[in-house]
Amino acid sequence: MLKNFYILFLLMLFPVVLSGNDAAVGKKVKASVKTWRIADAFATVDSIPVDTLHLNFQNDNHIDRYSISNAFRGNLGSPIQPKIYFDRPEQDEFIFADAYYPYMRRVESATFYNTTTPFSSLYYLSGGTNYYEDEQIRFLFSANANKKLNIGTTLDYIYARGEYANLAAKRFAGSLFGTYDGKKYKATAFFSANNHSHYENGGIQDTSYINGSIQYPSYNIPVNINGYANFKHNQAFYNHQYSIGIERAIRINPDSVTIEYVPVTIFAHTVRLDDMRKRYYEQSVEKDFYANTYLPHTETNDTASLLKLSNRVSVSMAEEFNKWLKFGLTAYLENDYLRYGYLIDSVLTHRNQSNTRVGGVLSKNQGDLLRYNITGELTFLGPKAGDMMLDGNLSSYFNLFKQKINLIAHGYVKRQNPSDFLNFYHSNHFRWQRNFAAMYKTRLGGTFAIPTLGFDFNLSVDNLTDMVYFDKDALPQQYNGNIQVVAANLKQDFRVGSFALENNVVYQLSSNQAVLPLPEIALYHNLYYHGLWFKVLSMQIGADVRYHTAYYAPSYMPATGQFFVQDKMKIGNYPVMNVYINAHLKRTRFFIQYYHLNQLFMQGDYYSMPYYPINPATLKMGLTWNFYD
Predict the structure, then answer these.
(1) Of 131, 230, 475, 542, which sees the most CB atoms within 10 A?
(2) d(CA 175, CA 19)
(3) Buried b (16+ CB within 10 A) or exposed e, 493-514
């Protein structure tokens, strides 16, 4: 750890010589780098700010930025599930991907760039006790060949040894991306490779090791199994579109006119390939931990895969064309080819499937007074025929009493056939064959926000019909009835001079805790001082805490990578407190954090999920260094 601190100190000093003053640096970044993400499969641009924020850099990791409360195994690289219901992503057709969602380099979370000068960024994170520390290195490079063409690459490596036995995780992810922004032809390309490996220990054997009479170092606490899991996800995405439009004269002032190209009709094609594979391995079969062992082998070697190729063609009427009826209209046709890989009595078997759907979008994405997006979709060919979706959102941005007000309403109705892996799966320890009915989900929600006052309130309601879940035996079951989930999410920040208190309170209710257990209350509070020292050094010094009420939280099944319900162990009612120092100097951000500080003076069961404790008190540190010339 001292070695890492020394390296961090040297890297921190280097940029002082290479950089100008802090204000000039910030202005230069904003002027030379533009960033955005794509909002949908049509590659609609959703602008985002350049990642140069001074505050809360200590939370810039895969776990803390995913949700304010998460179930995970303790170390970076762990399979993870948010405890906040509305933070959970939609279940993937390849159900084994869900636990790795925040770690994957995917087009949905990719950032695209347009730069006047080459831009690159280097990130380093380290934390934990000697020989058991978590480490992460990220690298980004992006540059424009000309005003229209940008290309870039990212690399992301995690090696987390884990404070507990048999929990080490290793992950490598890389991506190539590019955009072309021509007058009539535009294109967005993204390619990524993700390889995530980790050991499985099945949790600790005895809970008294955490808060009881037995006091052991974390790495000496006995665990249940010695397994190994690997998940791979390779992705390719390419969207290109060609527009037919008109030239229109725009008067800038009484003496000046400019010619503007206005698209009228846009023809687009999107192709996307996802190749996902999951493997679970035991060198010697763990018969005591699992209720069943079906194969007579001396080792366990389970595998499953899904190859999905999607093609979408669309025709759109551009919103900019009509001055009086400002809306966009899109019609599309999409086909998915899926190739499933199963094990049947140790024999790898493949099955092919094809589904075709038709859809339309009515949208208005320009202007502040009213924006909307309404999407309808129906699958009419293939085994998933009958699946449908009607999704809509409405937003308005206006000023009231000199305050900017944001109002957002959203909702959808969906009918979905369950994943084929929920209906059929064979492995050494788990087998099931089901014929589940289609699931229905209805969601309504809204957000009222006043950004200048640090206020954001969201209220959401879900109704789930015929939900498929994993029961106490970690097997998929279907609940024949309705489950309602209601959640209120309040964010309110208070600032007095150089001091600030950030608050995030979530109140959520599940009408059936036995099927869909959720903590009733989850909290995040962050108290800090923020000031500019010596006119160049931005300093943030503070403490934060995370907490949720006790409940029968889902546990984690190593052999399948699924979270399943249980009623033997409650977790919660235990805060996790951290103290930290964040600094922003020229092109460099760095932090030092003491994680889980309260473990040094507070008794309690510090579990993230049943039988999986979080890491004990430890020191973390991180650095990011940006280059833009």
Answers:
(1) 542
(2) 29
(3) eeeeeeebebebebbbebebee
User: 3-class SS at 418?
Assistant: coil
Question: Distance between CA atoms of 400 and 451, rounded to whole angstroms?
Answer: 12
Tokens describing residue 224:
């249940």
Q: Confirm if 396 and 371 have CB atoms less than 8 A apart.
A: yes
Task: List average pLDDT for each run of 10 residues in the chain, which is 629 residues long.
Answer: 44 40 48 78 72 80 93 93 96 95 93 91 86 88 94 96 93 96 94 97 90 76 95 96 86 75 91 97 95 93 97 88 74 97 90 96 84 94 96 90 90 96 96 96 96 94 97 97 97 96 97 97 97 92 97 97 96 96 91 94 92 93 86
Burial class (CB in 10 A: 0-12, 13-18, 19+), 167: buried
Cα-to-chain-centroid distance, residue 262: 36
- The pair of structure tokens assigned to 395 is 């937003």
The tokens describing 92, both together, are 């993937």
What residue ranges do the domains of the chain occupy? 2-627
Report which secondary-structure segment, H or E, holds 433.
strand 431-433
C-beta of residue 552 within 8 angstroms of C-beta of residue 565? yes
CA dist 143 and 145 (Å) reads: 7
Task: Dump strand ranges (E) for 215-325.
Answer: 227-253, 256-282, 300-317
> How far apart (Å, rounded) are the C-alpha atoms in residues 225 and 246?
67
Helix (H, G, I), strand (E, B) or coil at 132: coil
* Cβ count near 614 (within 10 Å): 23
| Of 201, 174, 254, residue with least CA distance to 559 | 201
Burial class (CB in 10 A: 0-12, 13-18, 19+), 382: middle
Which secondary-structure segment (H or E) carries 616? none
The two tokens of residue 561 are 């990578």
